[in-house]
Amino acid sequence: MTELVRLTDVIKVYQGGITGALNGVSLSIEQGEFTAVMGPSGSGKSTLLNLIAGLDRPTSGDVAVGGTDLGALGEAGLARFRRDHVGFVFQFFHLLPNLTALENVLIPAQLKGRESADTRGRKLLETLGIPEVAERYPAKLSGGQQQRVAIARALINNPTLLLADEPTGALDTHSGDQVMDLLAQLHREGQTILLVTHDAKLATRHAARVISVTDGKIVDDARLETTERSASDVVRVRSEETSR
Ligand SMILES: Nc1ncnc2c1ncn2[C@@H]1O[C@H](COP(=O)(O)OP(=O)(O)OP(=O)(O)O)[C@@H](O)[C@H]1O
Ligand SMILES: [Mg+2]
Predict the structure, then answer these.
(1) Of these four, 25, 26, 213, 228, which has the most CB atoms within 10 Å of its CB?
(2) 0.70 cut: is pTM over it?
């Protein structure tokens, strides 16, 4: 197993924040893992994802992805890191309304100046089950379709790491299930995924590992059996170290 993400003693205090959003998080994620992050509102889940994505920097501590210390990168280096290694899916899709679905998918590829991106974009939409929406604008799409477009956009550059922050939070149960099935399929194909969700059922049904965050600390880290996941299959690891 190859380690892909390593956080060491990460602390994040936002400007004006009285308490830290993250209060000493150390974490290792292997390549190919499907990890869910759970925890109450305000516990630091999005902060954790943003730091791993290189969208923000820790107050102290280290974040490394694929052996690269993100703290050693300047702003341009960080932007390049995000473009080349990170796909990010948000709760509210964040599609640009004046671009078609396909044009939205191609935004990161254009930044990278890739040829044949168009073909790959269409193929991704097909894989995600929505080839017919390519030329349509986001306002004409359902929430589930918009989220699948956003997932295609996150995948267009073959990211090392797919990060999803409550990707089903704005979707009805059926669309949410479809999105989760897609993530599970991507995981089976080898994609490393880090997913934030409030939904314990979704987390345990699809992810192989569930990390619980409370008050900016990891309070539990559980690996689940790959077959027939249920609460009773949970194998606890590292709880002793992390609940110090
Ligand atoms: N940009 C910011 N500036 C100041 N404080 C922030 C900022 N972003 C988050 N916080 C604070 O940091 C803490 C952790 O926030 P974070 O968004 O990571 O929580 P979360 O677990 O994702 O919550 P939710 O489930 O509601 O999305 C909260 O107290 C929040 O108010
Ligand atoms: Mg959040």
Answers:
(1) 25
(2) yes
